[in-house]
């Protein structure tokens, strides 16, 4: 009440009294005791609500609906709050989980595909005096018109295109086959973007040059030109090794997902329907925005994915529920395991996020600070560490029954020395750790970005906290 009288006293003018020095009795006479009581209650409710949450160890997931009992002057203030809260979870035994992933299989065709791509990089384009054929490169001018009126945004000059790629307008490849330099023809096609998206237009194509691609022979000389190796066999062996290393990284990601999926089958997470609904709508809005930016309709997207609307909705609902359940479970594991986040870990995560968003680290940190996203970024790292802890204790086998070694796998797909890793881990444990109350770090743009380790386990649990989806 004292605070209410003081606030109202600053707002009213009473002859004979300085602003802010008006006695309570005079304020009652001027504005009414009821106004003062309303001001006091409105000021006290947020504080009392937060205190009630803390006293009852409740984590809110939604805004409360407050119901204030009829209040009389001098009586006790009673109110109730209805809201969605963080579900209570009984964790299963998450140590020593078992999961299975596919085998790593690198075939000769994959090696040959990489070799062919390398040949194309070292190939030459030679002008030819003949009609264009499949795989030839042509230089073309394109212009589209509708009802005889040129479409300004559908014009291109001096474009290089490989016949048969199938990456341009429908019908272009068939039209180009048989055309020579200086030739011009018009065909009908459907635009895939812009103002006239999905509409039939007349496209005029002019060929200004035809070039044939000449590829180098696959021999030792090519290996010496295209790589640091002396023989073609050595080059092939290196390509196979790189493919295997890449497959190991992909297999590790699959192992992470499989362990998390197994964990979620062992625990029941009661998710509030209203919170799930809000997150579902936020996801749909985000997908719609992305499709619009890409010039696709939802129908186009569903067709490309081979899904019906019902199948898409069921799949999205499951993904949202799994992501939310994973957040709550991993948060609980992080608490049980007393996992904190030090400044270096947060810095690495911020760098990774900045790179993914296409922003500079400085701009990304500024945006995160301005929109209060840092706590959620800290939570993402913490969840990643919790999942890394679970995966590290798990036994993951491939389809052939071989145990997948995850602890020593490096970002480049090679294996590190276990003794060196354990020594580094011991040194890290002995170092002082700054836990969750991490200050915003200074970002070094040249710092390395971790690909594996705890950071790599963040991808599957980085979804916005429920209730913050649209802002995140």
Question: How does this structure look, described?
Answer:
With 472 residues, this protein is α+β, with helices and mostly antiparallel strands. It contains 14 helices and nine strands. Strand 5 and strand 6 form a beta hairpin. It starts with a helix and ends in a 42-residue tail after the last helix. Residues 432-472 have low confidence and may be disordered.
- Which regions contain 5 or more consecutive residues with pLDDT less than 50? 432-472
Radius of gyration over all CA atoms, rounded: 32 Å
| Average pLDDT score | 84
Beta-strand segment tally: 9
Number of domains: 3
Main pleated sheet: 5 strands, antiparallel
Individual helix count: 14
Span between termini: 39 Å
Question: From the helix content, strand content and strand pairing, which structural class follows?
Answer: alpha+beta
Shape: extended
Portion in helices: 40-55%
CATH architecture type of the largest domain? Orthogonal Bundle
CATH superfamily grouping of the largest domain:
Trigger factor, C-terminal domain
CATH class assignment of the largest domain = Mainly Alpha
Order of helices and strands: HHHEEEHEEEHEEHHHHHHHHEH
CATH fold-level topology of the largest domain: Trigger factor, domain 2
Instruction: Quote the beta fraction.
Output: 5-15%
